[in-house]
Amino acid sequence: MIAPGPEFLVLTGFLGSGKTTLLRDFLTRPEAADTAIIVNEVGEIGLDGALLREVGGDVAMTTLANGCICCQMGSDLTTTVEALLGTERPGDIPLARIVLETSGLSKPGPILRQLASLAQHRMRVSVLATYDPTRPPEIRDFEEAAAQWAGAHRIVVTKGDMVSPKRFAAASGEIGEINPLAEIVAEASREPAVSAAFAPPRPGPVTMPVPIAGKTRPHERLTSLLLRQEDVVAYDDLAAWLDNLAGFLGERLLRIKGLVRVRESEEPILVQSVGTLFSQPRLYRGGMPGDGGFLVVIARDAEAGEIGRVEPSLPFSLSRAPGRGGRSLRAEAV
Length: 334
Ligand SMILES: Nc1nc2c(ncn2[C@@H]2O[C@H](COP(=O)(O)OP(=O)(O)OP(=O)(O)O)[C@@H](O)[C@H]2O)c(=O)[nH]1
Description:
This protein is an alpha/beta fold. The protein is about 25% helix and about 25% strand. It has 9 helices and 15 strands. The strands form 2 sheets. Strands 8, 9, 10, 11, 12, 13, 14 and 15 form an 8-stranded antiparallel β-sheet that branches. It is globular and about 60 Å long. Guanosine-5'-triphosphate binds next to helix 1, strand 9 and strand 10.
């Protein structure tokens, strides 16, 4: 009998819903020892991979940074998985699982289709999605979010420490309306939530997600901008800019993350918001990526030019594509 291959977990969930945090927590556990991680970063400069490396120890980690893998016809994903499976392992201990952390805008359906071409490896593929109870249920109006939850076998309610028990409990009902087939993990305490999220999947066939009717253009209303830092900034200026950006964009702001060099510290500051809710900025101990400081801003129904006009003016360059633009503030789509 051919031995089954590793478990393959597609970790999906809307922008900022807690995928990286959940995976980081799992990686600190002994049962994560024989895990390999693939991170799909939409931006050129990956932060999720860096945050996972901070805690990941010897775990094999690969970053796929050529854009959203669900939008690619022929992707690097299958090649990467083949390479992982073909790599000699210390002590010949086989990989127990591969976790693919997708970008917050990936849809699982096309990813599962790509993985289907690896059937000979007999991997047990399943989709694990995160559900952020701090965001309103209207997030499901985004076709990406709807596709993620619709395609999930297991959905984990995250951020149990950030909402009331009532709100936390209501999330399960909302999930049930979107995907009545998914197993729901709703544990407000972190430890049991992480255990249940990464527990072996219950046996059963992997099904393709139900296609969501509607727009055909992917990510139609979303703008994803890369702001590259050209000079060090004062922390107060950065804080004022983030405040003003959040005030200006309001509900249209979906996600900010990045590492910024500030005058006050040798180490960069990790900046993160989900919607307009900012996490406490903290020093990032993993070192500055080679390309220097950056911020990724993901917004709905917003133009790069509008974001470029937010005060105070900071030494970040925005460029939409090489060769276009030519203004001091250029926008680069990520
Ligand atoms: N308090 C609290 N904050 C959380 C929790 N999970 C995530 N966060 C915060 O929410 C923000 C987004 O979390 P991430 O884990 O980066 O979310 P993500 O889904 O990986 O984000 P993208 O990769 O951008 O889609 C970060 O600032 C986290 O620190 C949680 O359980 N509790």
